[in-house]
Amino acid sequence: MARVKRGVTTHARHKKVLAQSKGFVGRSSTNYRIALERLEKSLQYAYRDRRNKKREFRALWIQRINAAVREQGLTYSQFIFGLKQANIELDRKVLAAIAFDDAESFAGIVSQVKAVLEAAPAAAA
Fold first, then answer.
1. CA 111 to CA 11: how far, in whole Å?
2. Residue 107 to residue 77: CA distance in whole angstroms
C-alpha cells in the first residue's frame, strides 16, 4: 500500500484557523493550538450575541419611546395601550426612529393616542 503524506491537508486546516483568528491578541493569532481555542470561544460569543443584540435594541427603542412620550405627558405603558386602542400598527423600531428623528410627527401620533385615551373612559362610563 502506498504511503499517504497528510501535510498538505493539515497545513490548509491550520492556515484556515489562523486566518480566522487574525487580529487576536498575542499567541492567539499565531499559535495554532491557542488560536483554535480562542476561535471556538469567539464563535460561541458571536452566536450568543446575535441573539442578545435583538434584546438590547428592543430595550433601546423602548427607552427612546419612553423619553419622548414623557415629554408629551404620558407614560410608555399608557402610550402603548393607546396605540393598540387607536389601531395604530407601528412597531417599536419605527416609533423610536420617528421619536428620534422627527419630533413633530411623533407629537402628532401622541396627540392621536391621547384623544383615544380621553374618549375611552367616557365610552366605558
1. 66
2. 16
Q: Which three cell numbers stand for residue 74?
A: 404620558
Q: CA 37, CA 41: separation in Å to the nearest integer?
A: 6
Q: What is the pTM of this model?
A: 0.79
Q: What distance in Å separates the CA atoms of residue 13 and residue 7, rounded to the nearest whole number?
A: 10
- C-alpha 81/C-alpha 97 separation (Å) is 19
Helices (H), the chain: 7-20, 32-71, 76-85, 92-101, 103-124
CB 35 within 8 A of CB 24: yes
Neighbour count for residue 61 (Cβ, 10 Å):
19
Measured distance CA(104)–CA(18) in Å, rounded: 52
Q: What is the pLDDT of residue 123?
A: 61
**pLDDT mean over 79-100:** 95
User: Taking a C-beta distance cutoff of 8 angstroms, is the pair 15, 8 a contact?
Assistant: no
pLDDT digits (tens, 9 = 90+) for 14-71: 999 999 999 999 999 999 999 999 999 999 999 999 999 999 999 999 999 999 999 9
List the grid coordinates of 32. Answer: 495554532
